[in-house]
Design a protein that fits this description.
It is a single chain. The protein has 328 residues and is an alpha/beta fold. The chain folds into 2 domains: 23-34 and 212-312, Tetratricopeptide repeat domain (Serine Threonine Protein Phosphatase 5, Tetratricopeptide repeat, Alpha Horseshoe), CATH 1.25.40; 46-208, Rossmann fold (3-Layer(aba) Sandwich), CATH 3.40.50. Helix content is 43%, strand content 17%. The protein contains 11 helices and 7 strands. It has a 5-stranded mixed beta sheet with strand order 3-2-4-5-6, with helices on both faces. The protein has a two-stranded antiparallel sheet with strand order 1-7. Helix 2 (56-68) crosses helix 6 (191-203) and helix 10 (276-289) packs antiparallel against helix 11 (293-312).
């Protein structure tokens, strides 16, 4: 048997496996979805941010950048204020007895809570810069910034149970990964400014909804009607052009309504534009048409994405409820 024959047989075997296997063939594509706050949502509330504890050459610019970065868009609007502004803006503000802590520059929780209550503040977000304990011989030394954050509810209106959520979380930013995630920071004046800006961007998702990048699995058809068109749509989705990809998959589905591949990929495209009801309907249809492992996994992922969206913006459960995921 010639080498050419062996290669042809191997290629055919691969195509047949993709065509007949329950799992199907797939490819990864990036997609952006909403994620709920890591600690607790402060949307629609006021948050007092006291001076950050740590070296002031780092703490002061982080504090200033964070106050300026308070989101104001619908669904994420949060009021961030400094402790000093409470003193100046609250008529008849009573300093009372200054309770000391272990750090002379760090006001106690009780003192801050009293100040926040007098200023009608809902939450306190406290930060402390943690030292880099790694050996100085490590080449990355000096290129990492860590701040430990702690969120404290103050007003009676927000004293609800935390539902198992942590009250604090450290945010760790490394220069190389920060520049990859935020390419615009390469234009910063120096590495300290880049690290500080990246840390602020990573801090806001602790208390407000945030867009996160995930990787989803698109299905690749073989030896089926509409194969070439679906592959073109897949390539567009990988490039982030979900609208164009959806149009191609929709055309394939209209011509070949038995294409479970087109239905599956359309379900993911619906998530990309936050049409979760449509996405769940399409994902369920793909499972009914062909109950592969990929289709079942996608159905669960779609509902999880919808749950995260509802939790991020504190929306009620959808009328149809939840069918394949459990309440957290």
């Amino acid at each position: 048997m010639t080498v050419h024959c062996v290669r042809s047989l191997a290629r055919c075997a691969f195509l047949v496996a993709c065509f007949t296997s329950l799992g199907g063939c797939r490819m990864g594509a990036p997609i952006h979805v909403w994620s709920p706050p890591t600690l607790r949502s402060t949307v629609g509330h006021s948050v007092m941010v006291p001076k950050i504890v740590g070296p002031q050459e780092l703490a002061t610019p982080i504090h200033e950048k964070l106050l300026l970065a308070a989101p104001a868009d619908a669904g994420r609007s949060t009021r961030l204020v400094s402790a000093e502004s409470i003193n100046a803006s609250t008529p008849g503000f009573d300093q009372g007895v200054s309770l000391v802590s272990y750090n002379a520059d760090d006001e106690s929780d009780l003192a801050l809570a009293k100040k926040a209550q007098q200023g009608h503040i809902d939450f306190i977000l406290r930060g402390e810069i943690l030292p880099d304990r790694r050996p100085r011989s490590i080449t990355e030394a000096g290129n990492r910034l860590t701040v430990s954050w702690r969120l404290m509810p103050v007003s009676a209106d927000v004293q609800a149970p935390t539902e198992g959520r942590p009250l604090g979380k450290p945010v760790v930013v490394e220069l190389e990964s920060a520049l990859e995630r935020y390419p615009d920071l390469a234009l910063a004046a120096d590495k300290d400014v880049a690290l500080q800006s990246a840390l602020v961007r990573e801090t806001l998702p602790l208390i407000t909804p945030a867009v996160v990048r995930e990787r989803v699995q698109l299905e690749i058809p073989y030896l089926l009607p509409g194969t070439q068109a679906i592959r073109r749509g897949n390539a567009l989705a990988v490039a982030g052009r979900w609208g164009q990809a959806e149009a191609i998959w929709q055309e394939v589905y209209q011509r070949y309504p038995f294409s479970s591949v087109a239905v599956h990929n359309l379900a993911i495209a619906a998530v990309a534009k936050q049409e979760f009801g449509l996405a769940r309907s399409l994902a369920s249809r793909a499972v009914r048409m062909k109950p592969t492992k990929l289709h079942q996994q996608t159905l669960v992922w779609v509902e999880r994405a919808q749950r995260a969206y509802h939790e991020a913006f504190q929306l009620p459960d959808p009328p149809e409820g939840w069918s394949v995921t459990r309440t957290r």
